[in-house]
Amino acid sequence: MPTKESGDAEVRLGSRFRRLFGATLVSSIGTGMHTAALPLLALQSTGSPMALSFVVMAAEVPWVLLSLHAGVVVDRLDRRRVMVWADLGRFAVLVALAVLIVTAQVNMVWLVLTAFLLGVGQVFFDLAAQAAIPDFVTRDPRSLAKANGRIAAAESNGEDFVGPPLGSALFGVWNFLPFAGNALSFAASGLLIFSIGADTKPKETLEAPRKSVRSDMVEGIRWLFGNRALRTLATVSCLGNVAATAQFAMLALLAMEVLGLPDFGFGLLLTATAVGATTGGLGAAAASKRFGPGTVMLTGKAGVGAAILVLGLTANAWVAAAMMMVTGALMTAEKVVVSTLRQQIVPDGLLGRVLSSSRLVVMAGGPVGAALGGILASVFGVQVSYVAAGAFLILVALLFYPLLNNRAMMRATDDSGR
């Protein structure tokens, strides 16, 4: 029988975190809305597939161009203010886009610029929110795991479950509506963050002489690669992203050619992933406490590999939906555990820069996975790409077991506390 001290239910996160959670949920719904509505607007306004590809690309480019700079900003400034300004900036961009829609002045240049600026706001908001969690709760692993799990569930519900169908439905009624509603969501998120009292704790970086931006970025990168546990986590996450991107890049083709699903059925597969992600986010803290963070990561990685493998071997839509739910749950649980470990290991004054450096390493696996998935599907068939990605993830879990087991993770967090 669990004691009062050990029970997850007794962990209290406080009103400051609850406002961060609310802001993240509202902001994520807005992100999900424009993720669905912007491509639809691009096709409606230009009728060009190239415009669609440019819009999607423009939303991803800020992570490559600005993540390291954003990490410096997050470490130098009040993270609450960074999130507020990110939301206000996205609010202004969407108000401008709504005016362009009403006046019929939308063109490809405005759409690409809008996607890019919204992506910039997301980079700063996401990094600041992740780095602020230890500020709003504590560095106790139970509190961090519970907080990260709720943030992951909020992001999944907003960006994947509620936002996209809401954005596309409102677009069908009037193309102006999803962007006006999106602007309001960012305004509400900014107000919630603004209502959180400013953190009075001095940042470690402000106690030392101010360095150049380049020096700060290099310090974050060196910290990441100089710590074996963090280096291993970033490497494994990057390899996992290779397989995950290969899976999702070919999902529409798998749904159409193998599962025989219509467009609506493809959307249901994505919904199944979001449902699983919510479950994984909310249950990650309890699983990590019960089995240990290393076990959750390794089992999650191998379990995702097995689920992707089954996706490559089945032609049953219900089995495929179940596997998508499994991948969503396990990938999100892994994400929560990794975020918690980083927040435990990295000093507060370096957290933004180390997070941004890690995110850059992880995202490098995306284009590789998309390319490999496309090549394997073109040469051998779409199911082969899934079998290969699943087997690859299982192999990764086996190879990294010595560096990611519970003992290794406990040693890493113990060393960071000394």
What attributes characterize this protein structure?
0% strand, single chain, 418 residues, 84% helix, Growth Hormone, Chain: A, 18 helices, mainly alpha, 2 domains
Explain the overall architecture.
By secondary structure, the chain is mostly helical. It folds into two domains: 189 residues, MFS general substrate transporter like domains (Growth Hormone, Chain: A), CATH 1.20.1250.20; 206 residues, Up-down Bundle (Growth Hormone, Chain: A). 84% of the residues lie in helices and 0% in strands. The protein contains 18 helices and no strands. It is globular, with a radius of gyration of 21 Å.
Topology:
Elements (H helix, E strand, L loop, with lengths): L13 H33 L2 H28 L2 H24 L5 H29 L4 H33 L3 H18 L9 H4 L5 H14 L1 H22 L1 H8 L4 H29 L1 H19 L5 H29 L5 H13 L1 H16 L1 H18 L1 H4 L1 H11 L2
In helices, the fraction of residues equals: over 70%
What is the total number of structural domains? 2
- In DSSP terms, counting alpha (H) and pi (I) runs of 4 or more, how many helices? 18
Look at the structure and give the mean pLDDT.
Answer: 83
Within the CATH hierarchy, at the fold level, what is the topology of the largest domain?
A: Growth Hormone, Chain: A
Basic shape: globular
| CATH class placement of the largest domain | Mainly Alpha
- Uncertain runs with pLDDT below 50, 5 residues or more? 1-9, 200-208
Q: In this structure, how is the largest beta sheet organized?
A: none
Tell me the distance between the termini: 32 Å
Question: What order do the SSEs take from the amino end to the carboxyl end, as H and E?
Answer: HHHHHHHHHHHHHHHHHH
Number of strands: 0
Question: Could you give me the name of the CATH homologous superfamily of the largest domain?
Answer: MFS general substrate transporter like domains
| Percentage of residues in DSSP E strands | under 5%
